[in-house]
């Protein structure tokens, strides 16, 4: 059995009823801050933790409702969970017995439901409507204040089993079979780790003492009880010897200590104070202190460990406690049947390698001790370390909560299996940011990754402030990742806005061959007798037409563009600042730019003479007289071609991004204004809109 669905209505950030699908095993809730991750854990706690405080406050209601809604009906919080039979569950299992009174379906796989409702009883509804209707305020806070002070004290909750329409109150004994343990982000683990007098450590010690007997299947229950009793008696004998030794050491001092009792009259009616005592094994737990021993034998108190390390120890103790709680031998019919572990933001106290270690640890122990694990996180390290099927993404889009399931967008087709494996393989820490950003710009190279943020700043549209992430796919792998966002193809997809910036990459081939090769735009369609041409070799652009409206491709103008660097130079032919220190042929490029600046006075013949002799340049010199471009465009394309041929891409992009950043903050004196390439400008404006 496992919790397969969670439904929430009007609880905190969740307004309209929303359904969250859950996994049998690991569930990682991820998303931005205040997206509702902790609220999901709280909902599970209210449903399954018998010790949870189920009386809520005004702050637990969803507040984004209209005046008419709040006047017509008192707000009501509803939480509900569906449990279904596991694939490998045995017939008439303990799980089935636990939820037998909760069943909504008895056929295999069986289904059960538990519901929590926080509501204003029927007898107060008329009073509520009369008072709220007369309030006549335009300030919503006035209505909520009235509810808080006049009606919240009258609110009640109930726990319902099975179909909530039947209003069947749940049997508390069945609810006690669930063991819910929650480790919050803000926690003081030292308090429960230091000595055996603390509750958690004491519980665990008490269970695991004499564990060699308790866990030995060779002994009957009566034999186990006898052996443990013998151990306790043996301990009592040894403890008595210690007490007697204390008495001996105190014999002479005791008379002096108690002399004052006679002087103060405490021996009235011949009552004489003395000392007596005994020690049980449970009382001596407080003498045990948790320590960490180094390889060299040095013993360090646990409180001197780092907070992250102690958190791992604490979680291990929680798992040990859950093992204790599920022990039928120890608790008999009071043993827990279903264990749930929830951890909030494990990254709060753990560096990345510790986060990986924790997840691996939880996965191993989940298979042995814990039926379901719920983790909230906004750490890319966590998402990079887990199976994509475990991820549940929570987004707030406007006032609406959207839940998506990255692992479920892939079907069992060969193409989707390949895409899923590709995405999982490439979801490193950097790319995992796509789950946390509100909007995303996918790019295929380092130049776009470095320059996009600076171009955005130039346009007064900051990416960081708008929670927009630029993610470099290091290639043209958009099709694999876009399946995560194509809401037209899958109801499980994320509905985030996604811009894809890609290159046209024109090509040509000699008609006598089958091999297509890179072709600069200046050479397109120049020799139709000897070559075949494609102004765009990017198949992604054609496939983009079938994507949902939240995904859009952006690229250079057809028959004019090639790459970002080419387009940047093409639209900034006078900008010498683009010729950074690592650009090869710097002087040649600067001379070309200067010649272009004297456009009216420069002849093309003189312009092309600036070009050094090499294969590309010689081809340009051979076509300038018979080219379809006008003089100015030919010069711009020549400069852009030569610029692209002179780049060490990553280095130049880094230099340019630094230059533009300095320009944006007013620390760089550019003689020429830099124009953001038009297709880049369009993508930035679209993603911000």
What does this entry look like structurally?
- The chain is an alpha/beta fold and 689 residues long.
- Helix 8 crosses helix 11 and helix 16 packs parallel to helix 24.
- The longest helix is centred in the middle third of the chain and has 44 residues, at 221-264.
- The chain is elongated and about 120 Å long.
- The model has no long low-confidence stretch (mean pLDDT 85).
In a few lines, what is going on in this structure?
The chain is of the alpha/beta class. 39% of the residues lie in helices and 16% in strands.
Q: How many beta-strand segments?
A: 21
Termini separation (Å)? Answer: 45 Å
Q: Identify the overall geometry.
A: elongated
Quick one: biggest sheet? 6 strands, antiparallel
Global structural class = alpha/beta
Strand content: 15-25%
Question: pLDDT average, as an integer?
Answer: 85
Q: Low-confidence runs (pLDDT<50, min 5 residues)?
A: none
Number of helical runs? Answer: 25
- Supply Rg: 36 Å
Query: Percent of residues in helical segments?
Result: 25-40%
What keyword list fits this structure?
689 residues; alpha/beta; six-stranded mixed beta sheet; 25 helices; elongated
Please specify the SSE layout and strand pairing.
Elements lengths: L1 E8 L8 E4 L4 E6 L5 H12 L18 H6 L4 E8 L9 H5 L4 E3 L5 E9 L5 H11 L4 H12 L4 E6 L10 H4 L2 E6 L6 H4 L5 H10 L2 H4 L6 H44 L26 E3 L5 E3 L5 H19 L2 H4 L6 E7 L7 H15 L5 E6 L2 H6 L5 E7 L2 E5 L9 H13 L12 E5 L2 H13 L9 E5 L5 H5 L14 E5 L5 E4 L6 E2 L12 E4 L4 H5 L7 E4 L9 H7 L15 H12 L6 H6 L5 H9 L7 H15 L3 H16 L13 H11 L1
Helix pairs in contact: 8-11, 16-24, 19-23, 20-23
